[in-house]
């Protein structure tokens, strides 16, 4: 008898996919994310190293002839007070970006703490925290901002940031509570309770990692809110008029009647920068919504090569 020997070729195990590779690939192929990220990087570079983009070291100093038109020496001209508009625009990026990131970060942290705690604890704690969230949601926001900024003492950056945090956390907290309520009775959380894990462990190690995309989206929304609201506060004169930011540039341009005096770039340049930074956060927010929600992802036709 002849024995038939069959040889099987070993199948190579699938190569492990690196964590974050799918997210990075989705980010690079998403036009909204790439446009928003490029705009944000440009403003970040301007904020970190402004001296690379202008030779003026003291943008508030009255060192030039007033109301000069745009030229090779003064790209956007000068103000009616003799200040270089381009230098103020570049140096003003730092404060505007700091307000957006710091206020957005702490508003998001407060939203996560209040919203997730209310949903997980339940009972009386949920009722009390939900009532606080609803109270802040129904209060008219901008009048409250003006009142807080006026009575807290205008003139400091910290006051503007604190006011933005107080008025900007409630909407995100409501979203966090709704998402945490849908996760509270999931099997992986029940197993953690059965194991005897602490509440802090369950919230921070089990629940929050599943809400990462929603947390990032809330941070971008809070940063967008902070950019626009801070510019509005400073435009109304509720910030420090001697500081360098886009909002204070708009305040002084309005105060000196820049549009009527033939200096439109004094008003248009900071207004466009505020709008561009807001567009950056909005596009990144839409992109993260698409990453987290498959129903929002655009349907693309995949071309298959002929065998």
UniProtKB/TrEMBL annotation:
The chain crosses the membrane at residues 33-53, 97-121, 128-149, 155-174, 214-236, 265-288. It is a multi-pass membrane protein. Keywords: Cell membrane, Membrane, Transmembrane, Transmembrane helix, Transport. PROSITE patterns: ABC_TM1. This is ABC transporter permease. It comes from Paractinoplanes globisporus. PANTHER family: D,D-DIPEPTIDE TRANSPORT SYSTEM PERMEASE PROTEIN DDPC-RELATED, OLIGOPEPTIDE TRANSPORT SYSTEM PERMEASE PROTEIN APPC. The keyword Transmembrane helix applies. Residues 93-287 form the ABC transmembrane type-1 domain. Belongs to the binding-protein-dependent transport system permease family. It is found in: Cell membrane. The keyword Ribonucleoprotein does not apply. It holds the Pfam family OppC_N.
